[in-house]
């Protein structure tokens, strides 16, 4: 009994420490107090295992990439839908490679009708830099820069021409003036509107 008393009073004995921890008052143990480090029910938070952290990071990265891909796809779909709603783009008028026959010529506010059956007309080269024509009597050729996107034709100031003498109505003043003409094609009719009100209408 003496030995047991000494063990109970000692503070450095392993047996005594175990005895104090196990032999708690019944009412204390009965209340189930598990919040303190001195109680049997104290639970220390378990840290996340280190081998799970890389996996979690990879999953987050995968989810982020998937969200980005979905957002990009949505933007692309919206852009395509907007382009479709805008409707087809009107192609520029075809001027080159067509034999345009002169119909009327307006100069100084006066419109002259080209006689039926006249050879007068213009043909723009496929290189979009030349024009060849006929005024009813003589053939001619010169520089003519075709800009299909802007629907304009810029004529040069010099022409090469034959020198056959003839007079109206066979001859018509068809040679364009130097400068830029607006080119508008409607229902197979080409209208060239140039400087000083010079207007030439031609048909296919």
Automatic annotation (TrEMBL):
Region labeled Disordered — which residues?
26-52
Which Gene3D superfamilies does this one have?
2.40.128.270
User: Which stretches are annotated as coiled coil?
Assistant: none
Q: Name one Pfam family in it.
A: META
Residue stretches making up the DUF306 domain: 95-171
* Protein name per Swiss-Prot or TrEMBL: META domain-containing protein
């Amino acid at each position: 009994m003496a030995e047991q008393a000494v063990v109970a009073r000692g503070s450095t004995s392993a047996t005594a420490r175990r005895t104090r921890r196990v032999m708690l008052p019944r009412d204390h143990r009965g209340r189930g107090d598990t919040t303190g480090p001195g109680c049997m029910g104290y639970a220390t938070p378990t840290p996340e295992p280190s081998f799970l952290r890389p996996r979690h990071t990879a999953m987050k990265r995968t989810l982020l990439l998937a969200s980005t891909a979905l957002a990009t796809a949505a933007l692309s779909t919206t852009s395509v839908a907007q382009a479709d709603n805008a409707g087809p783009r009107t192609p520029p008028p075809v001027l080159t490679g067509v034999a345009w026959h002169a119909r009327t010529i307006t100069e100084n506010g006066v419109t002259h009708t080209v006689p039926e059956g006249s050879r007068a007309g213009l043909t723009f080269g496929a290189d979009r830099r030349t024009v060849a024509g006929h005024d009813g009597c003589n053939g001619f050729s010169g520089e003519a820069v075709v800009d299909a996107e802007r629907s304009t034709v810029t004529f040069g100031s010099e022409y090469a021409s034959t020198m056959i003498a003839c007079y109206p109505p066979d001859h018509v003043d068809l040679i364009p003036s130097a400068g830029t003409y607006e080119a508008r094609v409607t229902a197979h009719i080409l209208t060239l509107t140039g400087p000083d009100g010079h207007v030439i209408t031609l048909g296919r």
